[in-house]
Amino acid sequence: METAKLDPAGPPGAAKSASDSSAGRRRRARPFPVRRVVPYGYLSPTLILIFVLMIIPITMVVGYSFKDNVIVEQNPVFAGLANYATVLTDPDFLAALKNTFIFIIVSTVAHLGLGLAFATMLNTPLLGGMTKAIFRIVYILPWLFTVAVIAVIWRLMLDPSGVVNYLLTAMGVIQAEVSWLSDPNMALWALTFINIWAGFPFFMISILAGLQGISPVLYEAASVDGATAFRQFRNVTIPQLKPVLLSMAVLDLIWTSQQFALIWMTTGGGPLNVTEMLSTYTYKQAFSSYEFATASAAAVIVLLLTMILAFFYVRLQKER
Fold first, then answer.
1. What is the 3-state secondary structure (H, E, C) of the chain?
2. Global confidence as pTM
3. What homologous superfamily does CATH list for 83-319?
4. Mean pLDDT of the residues in the chain
């Protein structure tokens, strides 16, 4: 009985396939470091812009906050936490902090409330398509105006001889002309109202998009179970909109805390600092009093407060 003789080199083509696989492994191994660097090459323009436009300026401002008055002093000396102590004990800063808190809380609550109310009205099936389109155009107009236009319009309307006083006097609501932006008792609330009027259309559009993304099946199921319109709103609409509402609320807190142009062009922080905000306080310290070191300390404090809000926003996005 003959036995097959085995070729010590293996079956035909085995050596070739082995060499090809080893060469393939070498070819795959060579560009491995390159593949790890390539993504950073694509990201490099963005990283460079972030470094130049964000990291360097923030680092410089933080450094300024620990020195004696910079820019105006040729050789500023290290001052430690003295600038922070000056800012935190300044009555104007404390007043600006309180005003900013009231301004952003009232504005955020009103933005969400008005945005939800108008979005619900625009999402109702009781209105026709043309009617909804007209109302959307009308409601979105405040958001289309620039800050300068909004400031000029409302300064003219809220003037003691403006149209607001004329209408309120004609309706018997007030008996004498009111200086809405000059009265210390009314200026902060008038400014807050202007900010609410200018900002609620954005929230209306965002919430309307969220409403249109809710499945009608949920409402049909709730209706079959006997839920009233109010219970459907409370148990279906609000839970479905919760991620949108929370994200918009945190974003509005950040945006409103950084509001400057509207405040500066309407009241300038006055009268008697009743509309002074953290943004206007920092600006005045730098460009009116030329105290760039204390302005830098105030800016760092504002940055830390904003970072806390940003942390909650990022956490909400991760949960979603």
1. CCCCCCCCCCCCCHHHHHHHHHHHHHHHHCCHHHHHHHHHHHHHHHHHHHHHHHHHHHHHHHHHHCECCCCCCCCCCECCCHHHHHHHCCHHHHHHHHHHHHHHHHHHHHHHHHHHHHHHHHHCCCCCHHHHHHHHHHHHHHHHCCHHHHHHHHHHHCCCCCHHHHHHHHCCCCCCCCCCCCCCCCHHHHHHHHHHHHHHHHHHHHHHHHHHCCCHHHHHHHHHCCCCHHHHHHHHHHHHHHHHHHHHHHHHHHHHHCCCHHHHHHCCCCCCCCCCCHHHHHHHHHHCCCCHHHHHHHHHHHHHHHHHHHHHHHHHHHHC
2. 0.82
3. MetI-like (1.10.3720.10)
4. 85
